[in-house]
Amino acid sequence: MQSTNPTFKSFKAFYPYYLKEHSNVTCRRLHFIGSTLVLAVIAIALLKQHYSLLWLLPVIGYGFAWVGHFFFEKNRPATFKHPFYSLWGDWVMFKDMLVGKIKF
């Protein structure tokens, strides 16, 4: 596992680092699955008014991502050192995968 902890002054500076930390296609796919399930659970919780389902969001989102990092990417998730930029990066990467900018 990597031990470096660079600092960033903007998300624009952080995102290339974030993408490098997600170079493994299986890791990216697991992030995509987790993010898709997070959106599905939000929709179901709101439509069915089962708001207790929202407690599942961190488990689903981080669960898939962390499996990708620990078993495929072999690095520590950026969330541990850069939580806000990392969450933002998750959704930007999700969008970039949806539009075909990033292979998954």
UniProtKB/TrEMBL annotation:
Pfam families: Mpo1-like. The chain crosses the membrane at residues 30-47, 53-72. Keywords: Membrane, Transmembrane, Transmembrane helix. Signal peptide: none annotated. The keyword Transmembrane helix applies. This is DUF962 domain-containing protein. It comes from Pseudoalteromonas distincta. The lineage of its organism: Bacteria, Pseudomonadati, Pseudomonadota, Gammaproteobacteria, Alteromonadales.
